[in-house]
């Protein structure tokens, strides 16, 4: 089933008692937070994931990695929830047994009023000790970097001709030393899930449980290529739920979905929630 207008999808949502809203970076794109894999503007089109988003990268160059995450944290702080985030919160109001499962490390769902989104890939705002995940770090506000605020790690999307140059060699000004854990002295690291790391067990289990039990799963703004998160819509489909996708582009999830709405989060979701 393919739908251009969201009317049919809105009806399906209106009949649902249990909804899962599964979101990816496209959810926050219209708030000005870059996605990962979009051509030219995506983070991985501009920066080398292996040098920035793996445990090995942090071990090799913690100041580089911490500085990059500080820059991203500053960008998110400046962003505001978009009408898509507000529509998700409205769906939660209408259908109390709605669970928001997000791959995003920003806090825009929370700021839009979503109750308790499940963060499968952690959070920019929950740094932790590298030595022991049980040592939560005090929020290292002191590191709210001048370089992050002043726009170093420049957004190269403004200069598309450079956007595919991943060599973007960071200079010393972009490096920020991470603080040390006050309990054991080890480095504090960003509280996100890097490639090769396990997802938080409780979050993944709660997401699978919600996907198994829902009537409708709405997947929004994800390329559906990163596992195990990309299993969540598939789990719902296998359990018999109706799966609705909102994305301006085709994705590998198209075949899993009952309805594919080609549009943006801020453009389509308000009509679904009305
Ligand atoms: C719009 C829009 C608008 C635009 N409106 N839409 C080979 C095969 C299979 C798997 C693997 C493999 N090799 C390695 C793996 C495993 C790996 C993986 O899946 N890799 C694939 C890339 C191949 N996975 C892992 O490593 C995971 N861990 C793991 O497997 O652990 C195993 C283990 C078990 C036990 C012990 C130890 C280990 C971890 C994955 C962690 C992912 N981390 C990141 C970074 C988080 C931190 C940070 O932010 O820096 O998570 S990567 C990045 O991708 C981020 C995202 O959450 C994730 C998904 O991306 P997302 O959200 O889908 O964004 P995009 O950019 O891809 O897509 C945006 C979409 O929006 C597009 O479709 C646009 O069209 C759309 N869009 N504007 C609506 N306005």
List the defining traits of the structure above:
six-stranded parallel beta sheet; NAD-dependent protein deacylase; SIR2/SIRT2 'Small Domain'; Rossmann fold; binds ligand BJW; cytoplasm; Sirtuin_cat_small_dom_sf; globular; 274 residues; 12 helices
What this model shows, in words?
By secondary structure, the chain is an alpha/beta fold. It has two domains: 1-33 and 80-121 and 198-274, TPP-binding domain (Rossmann fold, 3-Layer(aba) Sandwich), CATH 3.40.50.1220; 34-78 and 123-192, SIR2/SIRT2 'Small Domain' (2-Layer Sandwich), CATH 3.30.1600. It is built from twelve helices and eight strands. The protein has helices at residues 7-15, 26-29, 43-46, 49-52, 55-60, 62-78, 83-94, 108-112, 146-149, 201-213, 231-238, 265-273, and strands at 19-23, 98-102, 118-119, 128-129, 188-189, 216-220, 242-246, 259-261. The protein has a six-stranded parallel sheet with strand order 3-2-1-6-7-8, sandwiched between helices. A two-stranded antiparallel sheet has the order 4-5. Strand 6 (216-220), helix 11 and strand 7 form a beta-alpha-beta unit. Helix 10 (201-213) packs parallel to helix 11 (231-238). The longest helix has 17 residues, at 62-78. The structure holds ligand BJW. Residues 24-26, 29-30, 35-38, 42, 53, 103, 105, 121, 192-198, 221-223, 225-228, 246-249, 251, 264-265 line the site of ligand BJW.
């Amino acid at each position: 089933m393919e739908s251009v207008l969201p009317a049919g999808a809105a009806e399906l949502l209106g009949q649902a008692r249990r909804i899962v809203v599964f979101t990816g970076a496209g959810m926050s794109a219209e708030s000005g937070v870059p996605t990962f894999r979009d051509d030219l503007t995506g983070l991985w089109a501009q920066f080398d994931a292996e040098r920035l988003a793996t445990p090995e990268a942090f071990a090799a160059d913690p100041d580089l990695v911490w500085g990059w995450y500080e820059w991203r944290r500053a960008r998110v702080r400046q962003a505001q929830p978009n009408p898509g985030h507000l529509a998700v919160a409205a769906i939660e109001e209408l259908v109390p047994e709605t669970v928001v499962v997000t791959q995003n490390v920003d806090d825009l769902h929370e700021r839009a009023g979503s109750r308790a989104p499940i963060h499968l890939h952690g959070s920019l705002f929950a740094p932790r000790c590298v030595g022991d995940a049980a040592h939560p770090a005090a929020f290292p506000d002191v590191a709210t970097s001048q370089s992050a605020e002043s726009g170093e790690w420049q957004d190269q999307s403004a200069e598309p001709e450079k956007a595919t140059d991943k060599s973007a060699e960071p200079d010393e000004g972009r490096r920020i030393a991470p603080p040390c854990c006050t309990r054991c002295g080890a480095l504090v690291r960003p509280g996100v899930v890097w490639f090769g790391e396990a997802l938080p067990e409780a979050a993944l289990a709660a997401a699978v449980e919600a996907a198994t039990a829902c009537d409708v799963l709405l997947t929004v703004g994800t390329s559906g290529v990163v596992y195990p998160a990309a299993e969540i819509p598939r789990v719902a489909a296998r359990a018999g739920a109706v799966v609705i996708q909102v994305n301006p582009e085709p994705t590998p999830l198209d075949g899993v979905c009952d309805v594919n709405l080609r549009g943006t989060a801020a453009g389509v979701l308000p009509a679904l929630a009305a």
